[in-house]
Amino acid sequence: MRLRPYIHEYDFEKIRGWMTDERIHAMWCAGHMRFPLEKDDFFRALAFMHEKYGDCPFVATEADGTVVGFICCSVNAQSNEAMLAFVMIDPALRGKGYGREMVRTAARYCFNTLGADAVQLNVFDANERARKCYESAGFALRSITEDAYRWKDEKWGRCNMVMTKAPANELCMIIKDTVKPNFLNIRTSIMTYDRDAVCYGAPCWRWVYHALHSADKWFINPIDYEEPEFHEEGMDDPEKPCSTVLTDEQLLAYLDMVEKKTYDYLDSLTDDMLCEKPDGCRYTRLELVLRQFRHISFHTGVLNGQTMLSCGKFPMWVSETGKYVDDGEYFGRYRKGKIQL
Fold first, then answer.
1. Which end of the chain is more exposed for a tag (fewer CB within 10 A), N or C?
2. Is residue 331 part of a domain?
3. What was the pLDDT predicted at 338?
4. How many CB atoms are located within 10 Å of the residue 172 CB?
């Protein structure tokens, strides 16, 4: 994701329809702009905020230039604190991590380019979704002003949140965002493969279990690990005989568990911990992560190759979860849009 200056004549038409609900609009701008957004009024409001507070508007774009968000930044010369305001994401992309990535990108800009000592923002307590987004981006609650704003018959408290330095787990969150497509792609493989087709001497479902078991055991710490209840000795090695047969439903449930366990683990780490070795393990945490990136991607590719041989179609593959469209289609689309590097 990138930030560039907002160009009113070019960008307004892209964002004017993002606020379709009057209450959400009020939470976004606290009455500084009329509902619905109108071009001249929006321009005047931005000019006023720039003159009074120094706000500079930006849009967030994907690598191909697609506008996905809007945000304003300013710096208080006395406190050297930056302020983020008017955070807005394309509603079609909400809930997919775009808001978190945008405020992180804006915070990096404030720290690295503007030289701010801290970055703050305000959010109403009634806007729980936005508060959680900012918390996940690395902001912490600093203060609450009760009944700061009234909208119709509601009273909202204003929460001031602050980030005093670049997030200590920024790299961990990048890893988390990058590992999500791995789990999504092998999930698609399970939804499309012929589970009983033989691949290198074993049915494909055994290779699925092999890949999931490896992620379960080796992503965190293979030394401190307990086997799942349904596991039997040698079950994770497709070249060894196994009396237990797992259904696809069991494999998908196991994937759910491994995925949640992995995300919870990454949420618990700081970037410094990536260079450390877990107790008793000869690999660093980062080495373990990278080895599983390779392993699960390799076996997903093998499974999809077998599926292509069986039915002549290659299962859908995504490299960014934000590009995935959950419409029940599993074949014939690489990603929603072209990614330009």
1. C
2. no
3. 45
4. 23
